[in-house]
Amino acid sequence: MYTQALDSPAAGADEASEERERLERFQARIDRDEKIEPKDWMPEAYRQTLIRQIAQHAHSEIVGMLPEGNWITRAPSLRRKAVLIAKVQDEGGHGMYLYSAAETLGVARGELIEQLLSGRAKYSSIFNYPTLTWADIGAIGWLVDGAAIMNQVPLCRCSYGPYARAMVRICKEESFHQRQGYELMLTLARGSEDQHAMAQDALNRWWWPSLMMFGPSDAHSVHTAQSMRWKIKRFTNDELRQKFIDVTVPQAEYLGLTVPDPDLHWNEASQHYRFGEINWSEFQAVLKGEGPCNRERLEARRAAHENGRWVREAAAAYAAKHQGPARAMKAGAGALS
Amino acid sequence: MSAAVEVGSAQVSLAERVEYLLRLADTSLIAGQRLAELLGHGPTLEEDLALGNISLDLIGQARLLLALAGRIEDNGRDEDALAFRRDAPQFRNMSLAEQPNEDFAATIVRQCLLDAWQLETYESLTGSREEALADIAHKALKECRYHWRFSAGWLVRLGDGTEESHARVSAALGALWRFTDELLTPDALDARMAVCGIGPAPSLIRERWDTRVSATLAEAKLPKPPHRHYPWHGKRGVHSEHLGHLLTEMQFLPRVYPGATW
Amino acid sequence: MNEDWVLYEVFIRSRSGLEHKHVGSLHAADARMAIEHARDAYTRRQEGVSIWVVPSSEIIASDPGEADALFEPARDKVYRHPTFYVIPDEVKNI
User: For the domain with range B11-256, which CATH number is right: 1.10.150.120, 1.20.1260.10, 1.10.10.60, 3.40.50.720?
Assistant: First the structure.
């Protein structure tokens, strides 16, 4: 869709050819695997695509704190509680790194958050599903973080420098997320009958939504082709989804759990698992706001934002009274330590 | 580990040592649980990360202290048995720790008053004759210094910020101040612990806490509330109604599935 | 009323002996808060022993449009590099 904007005729013939040359030089840099940095010239469509994608990614991290945060106060051991706090906290940190990367493109975090809270921005559909039992925390770590890692590792090589650097940091930190989820599932799968059933139920509910995380199939993906040309994206949705299924099915077997797909089978010729039809109408409905928890998730984010306003104002007012941010409360303020 | 510690003429029983450790452990645990509620709901993303870090420190302290209490008790209870299988009257946390997060001001005031107490207490406990406790105190002290830096900074910003923030933080201070009586008024157990060199001298904690908190209140332009006698002490198992609800939520899984491992 | 905080850039020294390196940015209302936020966000895994924070607006950056003028002239000054000079093998310690 953004390519249309590029094709629109410029004011004069000279300007048009100049613009074309700049675009060619830009594409040549990308083709040489050079990184694009914030102050470099870039096509407006490239900037907008990145803002949209990075912001969606950041929003997903922030909204993603909620379904897991739902179980922090109820974690069944102190070790699990500490792990879950650290994980949810990491997600907040990742949201922050990503908003920072988006800010280098000239858009303020406040503006992006406003888009999220007003319902204009998208975030990953997976976080609109409820966490109903403790096993859901394991399933999210194992499947949702597993799918996220598949998506994110290639982004470490994205053509936009700040995004790529944020992703390097995020991937490094996330490596424990999937492992803790799998360990949790393993404990349940090998636990009592009740616990095993809890784990199977969680897999039943999270399997298909996890597959949907990779986005629509390539035939229906609006942004894939241009994003691949710009090296914002390195693999197609379907390639990544297949890769995820291929690595995850044997992990489910090890747990002694059944993947809820009667059509799932190994195909010797292609060396891939074949899987059943994804319910894309559910995916579209959840994206449009009709998932089980869309309303609750946005309400929670709005409440945090509204309830925090007086706090943000107070800190800004304090800083203003004490002659600007850099001079108010010196970094090392001894009087308070 | 020997059942009783003998110092001069004073002798402290095993039960008393465990009881004292539970006061410290439960205070960290309950305060950590309260802060953990806020993750994902803070006023900014940065504050979410900060409160999460403090919560993790507190839960980490609780785990070490509960495990130590369990070892001294020698009755087969580990950190989780102590955290998840006791009823409210058996908890020994300071009542201040269990007070709810009514707004960010209430959270900051609670943390500030508690952080100052923990900081002075652990500083003193680094010299405890309960050696394993002294080791834990060395670690906890560094954490508490940061907690105090964070919460005191916020107390000043809120007190000297806007009219609204000043009103909110004043209200929170008014509501929570009565619980400081428990922090600073020693009972028989505190006194015995001090005499035998396990716990700090109560007068020292009171004096240092008062100096620290008074200076920060002054900087925050908040008048110090008058002292109020308030004898219902969580450290002796007499809690506010809030603790029962907090535990109901925290303990539900191990109680529904007794004997399960997680 | 203003509720916007200032954007700060964060630099971390990962261990003593190394230089501070840019790691990202964050929002804070004042300098002290910026240090605390940097600590809480960027050193959760022992990534640092020292932190610098600078308001982003205070950073003065070179213009990529001038990159040719600024950096190309250094390109042909190969004589600044030790490998430019040919010294016979039998000469030692040079």
Answer: 1.20.1260.10
Among A187, A312, A321, whose Cβ lies nearest the Cβ of B160? Answer: A321
Cβ neighbours of A161 in C, within 8 Å: none
Per the model's pLDDT, the better-predicted residue between C7 and A4 turns out to be C7
DSSP lists the bridge partners of residue C8 as C26, C55
A188 with B253: CB under 8 angstroms?
Answer: no
Helix (H) / strand (E) element for C12: namely: strand C6-13
For B83, residues 6+ apart whose C-beta sits below 8 A from its C-beta are: A78, B29, B62, B66, B250, B251
E strand or H helix at B42 = none
A74–B59 C-beta distance less than 8 A = no
Phi (first) and psi of residue A266, to 5 degrees: -80, 135
Q: Give the B:C interface size as CB pairs under 8 Å.
A: 30
Do the chains contact at B48 and A81, CB–CB below 8 Å?
A: no
**Domain map of chain B by residue range?**
11-256
Given a contact as 3+ CB pairs under 8 Å, which chains touch B? A, C
> Shortest CA distance to C20 belongs to which of C37, C45, C43, C44?
C43
- Average pLDDT, consecutive stretches of 10 residues, N- to C-terminus, chain C (94 residues): 90 95 95 96 93 95 89 89 90 88
Residue A334: which pLDDT band, with cuts at 50, 70 and 90? very low
Residues in chain B closer than 8 A to C30 (CB atoms):
157
The residue type of A288 is K
Using CB atoms, pick whichever of C1, C32, C41 lies closest to residue B46: C41
pTM of the model: 0.93
Instruction: Give dist(CA B116, CA B112) in Å, integer.
Output: 6
What angle do the packed helices A145-152 and A193-212 form, to 10 degrees? Answer: 30
Q: Number of helices (H) and strands (E), helices first, in chain B? A: 11, 2
How far is B133 from chain C, CA to nearest CA, in Å? 25
